[in-house]
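Repro case for the chain-ordering regression, as requested:
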Amino acid sequence: MASKSNIARFIIILLALGFLYLPIATLIVYSFNESKMVTIWTGFSFKWYVALFNNSQIIHAVGISLLVAFLTACASVVIGTLAAFVLVRVRKFKGESAFVLFMTAPMILPEVITGLALLLLFVTLGDFIPLFSDRGVFAIWIAHVTFCSAYTTVVVRSRFRELDISIEEAAMDLGAGPIKVFFAIILPAIMPAEVAAFLLSFTMSMDDLVITSFIAGPDSTTLPMVVFSSVRRGLSPEINALATIIVLIVSIFTFFAWLSMVRKQKRMAADAAKAKKATKLEEQGTLYNHQ
Amino acid sequence: MSMGFSANMSFIRRAFRKSKPKVISVSTHQNTWRDYALILVPYLWMILFFLLPFLIIFKISLSVTQIAIPPYSPIVTFEEGAMQIILHLENYTNIFTDPEGTYWRSYLKSIEVAFFSTFFCLIIGYPLAWALATSKPAIRNVVFMLIIMPSWTSFVVRIYAWMTIMKKDGLINDLLIHFGIIDSPITMLQTDFAVYVGIVYCYLPYMVLPLFSALMKVDYSLIEAAYDLGCKPVKTFFTTLVPQTKSGIVAGSMLVFIPALGEYVIPELLGGKGSILIGRVLWQEFFNNRDWPLASAVAITMLLILTIPIIWFYKIERKEQEGAYGK
Amino acid sequence: MEKTPLNTAKGTDKTINKVQHRPGDLPGQKPSPAEQNRRPILEIKKLNKTFETFKAVDDVDLTLYEGEIFALLGSSGCGKSTLLRMLAGFEKPSSGSILLDGKEIIGVPPYKRPVNMMFQSYALFPYMTVKQNIAFGLKQDKIPKAELEERVEKMLKLVHMENYVDRKPYQLSGGQKQRVALARSLAKEPRVLLLDEPMGALDKKLREQMRLELVDIINAVGVTCLMVTHDQEEAMTMADRIAIMDRGEFIQIGGPREIYENPNCRFCAEFIGSVNIFDCTLLSSNKQHSLIKANDFNNNIELEHDIDLADGMPLTIAIRPEKIYISKEDPQQDTNICEGVVENIAYLGDISIYYVRLLSGRLISATLPNVDRFKQGLPTWDDKVYLSWDPESCIALTI
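-- result from build under test --
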């Protein structure tokens, strides 16, 4: 019985991973194909990587995307942390449910709607503030921060909720003011969530196509936009090369995330073992030297 | 595209935490001016960049297109010192009375595609979530990472990958011909089939994660009890497992359905000329026809259609949060 | 640290053994702080706290004297924690005043109050070592490094944690965590130490051990201490004085012995320990003698003091189970006796509890210490037994 469900589990997981990784694997394999015909294998070659790095349009777009993603991640982590703090630590206030709605709606609304809405806002605001009307990096940044903050809020909030408020009270009780409490007690505790939120909003900003297409003017084309227009024109082996690089970077990060998770579990197990030993000695009455 | 991702992150957290934190002190402190200052930053940001835009969309949906900058008629005009407000409802009437029926047909088509995509995600995602939730923790962690990892890579690139696979001379046709299953290549690209594959591929993780988190919390002794009392497997599944994972099913379905309804990129790249979904219509009205008011009206109508699923999703989310943390 | 312990006087109270068996004068009871001429350190006056419509703390007055350990005892939701949190500064009182050394501290933020708290969950900083935890409060005061090291060292020694300085909270046993939490809250030499359910997170066996050690440490430091607990044993072993709290009000304040032997109302009698309560009527009362009719049995109850009540008025008599003698033979007395049938016996090892059904249908509990390992002839199930007690065992309660 147990082995039957084990086999079922194994097959299900294998099929799912096959479905998820087959397309990615083909991309990677064909990125080393010499032929321009994406799907016919003619020989091993790095030429599409060379072509990729010589494609000034893509390199330029990568630059813009990285800049926007970095700025977005920084700002949305700050806003997300503030929002999470407000949602978890501040007592009920007027308009709290509206606040929750605003903070989470960008996550589930179709992107065409959010993109259109933001563009029309920028056009309207452009009448008063020229910075919005040129639809450059600044406008894209604002748009990205708006939808990324929703995600960072959720990530930070779920960590925040697990914090024991009495630890903060203890710090305050021992003479630390609110600002000191935040930086010395709260921040170290939510740091993993902050890092996760940063990486999440970085990748989402890097990856966003639809919202950015609405916002971006002709001079500020981001990487997904370049990829999209090139894919729309037909298959291009350079994109395979780009995909391989992206997958490589993401796998490295995933690997380290997994590694740190494993390490953390090991550390926790070691800590728990130490505590257990101490508890045992305590029960025997031999833990403290005075006894 | 990465809609609902971190809604899922919170699901993950909840699922992975072995037990509730022991001490949950509910904050009882009084709000001070400092708290309100803190509220103000994110609140103002969201009002300015999220609420205001929707009011503007609504406003523009009530005007008509004209060749100007910006390309729509003003609602409020001043003529000889008198303020005039002109509201145009043409855009909305257009959507429903357009002789070719482009608009309402594409709404229906979108609902159909979103519905079936959600259904496919559910029947693929449920067994996967079950397999994940019931495996050993070490395996679970690795497989879990592997399931999410693709969603961290570029979205367009993943769709592109399917294009290369499903082409006439792509991998699937090659394999099928090689093994003699078919004689001539089948057309897969630019069909509804391709759109479904694309949507299921991209949205599957968002279905799996809430289901997984719900399945982690299931009291499996109920299943044993049902078996013990002579319940057959299928009936046991529907009487014990499904009710216990209802929140995961609803949350996962909404996380797929809502964004899938407005999906633009997947039908654009994988779908045929015939699969005109509403996201594509909005895009074309906006970018190709430069009819901003009509595009706005399309967006507002889409929002109205989505109200019910969105409210449903929030209700489930709220229940989950309250159940988990008791605020 | 090296202050003279003020609370050494366990049993130095011979002076008050004036009259035996009179309410208010109990042998083995420490003299009250006022009798010791101690200086009041914390004065709470007319303190109120209302949450929306719920009165958590209702017009409370309390004076804490230098060096005493005071326990707030009550079931959950009685307002004791709210009171403690108001003293620490985490809750703002709705009205009233809190004077610390004569100075008003309402409005002073928690980080500026010379009061420290040990939390129920200990609330140790998880990312800091034992040493860093203890040093945290001193660092906030910008104490020079050499002095800080010395004071931390002293605290570590006090709680016997010198060998675990570099451990993190997750690596400690429950008792060790408590020691660190205590050292951390004592490090700043607070004027008043607040303990929130100090043993709440320990298991039963360790709890009993730690009670006395905690008292020793607190007494060695000489700090005034206010603790909150729902565990009466804990309050009785640790505290010099106890306040029983219910629905935001103080019901009785007194030494452990006083509140047990002399509860001032039915609530207190039932709250502390177990008790048999009888509804009665006063037949007659004079200076030496009161005669009472209980509704549940025929023989009268006789007390050797007066009751300030008109004859014929209803009152309640409370008798603790351990003060009831149980015997198979009739002890031949006219008053303070009733008879019944043993319905159940709970053998607890040290004592046995007999549940005796009276003729009226009332169930009475009486305990019998198991002094002799193999004693024969004890009453058993369905035996007819006589329950009797001394006149001074009865507590007459009018409310």
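Ordering looks correct now. The interface with chain B takes residues 51, 90-92, 120-121 of chain C (CB under 8 Å).
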